[in-house]
Amino acid sequence: MDKLREFLLKYLETKYKVSDTVLGCAERLLVQLEKGSICLKIEDEAEIEELKKSPAVGQSEIRPLVFDGEDLYIQKYFVYQTRILEKIKELLENGKIHIITGGPGTGKTTSLATILKNELEKRILLAAPTGKAALRMQESLARQGIKLEAKTLHRLLYKQFPLEADILAIDECSMVDLSMMSKLLDAVPGNCDLYLLGDKNQLASVEAGSVFADICRKFEKEHKGNENIYKELRVNYRAKNAPGIAALSKQILEEAVENFDNENVRYLEDKFESELSGWYKNLFSAQTKEEALDFLKTFQILCATKVGKNGTKRINEKLCDVAKKEKAKFIPVIITENNYQQGLFNGDVGVKDNEQAYFYTGDNEIKNFPALTLPTHDYAFAITIHKSQGSEYERVAVVYPSAEKEDGDERGTILTKELLYTAITRAKKECFIYGAKEVLVNSCKRGISRASGIR
Question: I need a surface site. Which of 255, 271, 303, 409 has the fewest CB within 10 A?
Answer without folding.
Answer: 271
